Amino acid sequence: MNPDAGGPTTVFEQLWTPYRMAYIQGEGKPTGDHDCPFCLIPQMGDEDGLVVARGELVFAVLNKFPYNAGHLMVVPYRHVADYTGLTDAEVAELGAFTQTAMRVVRQVSGAHGFNVGMNQGAVAGAGIADHLHQHAVPRWGGDTNFMPVLGLTRVLPQVLTDTRGLLADAWPATAGDAG
């Protein structure tokens, strides 16, 4: 008797997203602050690092493995793991950048809402637990269609570098200018 008879392997079609396997298997995940992507990205050019905007204490970067198109993260330059370890100035700029990210994504893509938050620690789901980062994930009415629900696959309608360019061009000179 086939244990999969009538199960997902016989009912559903296969959708291949091989680029996700590197993320699932942890390829390139940091082993310390010397190879932390959030420490390395600021040293890269904006296009190569997918950096949307740079502030004094934080920067906004597109998620390389997004949940939705336009999924940004706001990251302090300083390698700090826990929100309680941020300075008052870092908290203020992180908040201002998150607000600006939401305004810019709404302006560029017409997002209807956002999931905003951070996972503190590996046990809470942080993929990179040693360097705090806040997610701003745009949402649209009906954006949970059959692909993620049945196919466990996200459909991103735009190449990340194109998304980065649109958001960077719309980002105001200072985070407070978008109010």
TrEMBL record:
Question: Which residue ranges does the record assign to the HIT domain?
Answer: 37-146
Task: Name the UniProt key words of this record, in alphabetical order.
Answer: Hydrolase, Nucleotide-binding
Query: Sorted alphabetically, which Pfam families does this protein's record hold?
Result: HIT
Binding-site positions, substrate: 63, 135
Could you list the residue ranges forming a coiled coil in this record? Answer: none
What terms describe the molecular function in GO for this protein? Answer: hydrolase activity; nucleotide binding
- Top-rank taxon: Bacteria
Signal peptide residue numbers: none
Q: Which InterPro entries match?
A: AP-4-A_phosphorylase (IPR052908), FHIT (IPR039383), HIT-like (IPR011146), HIT-like_sf (IPR036265)
- Protein name per the record: Diadenosine tetraphosphate (Ap4A) hydrolase
Specify the taxonomic lineage. Bacteria, Bacillati, Actinomycetota, Actinomycetes, Geodermatophilales
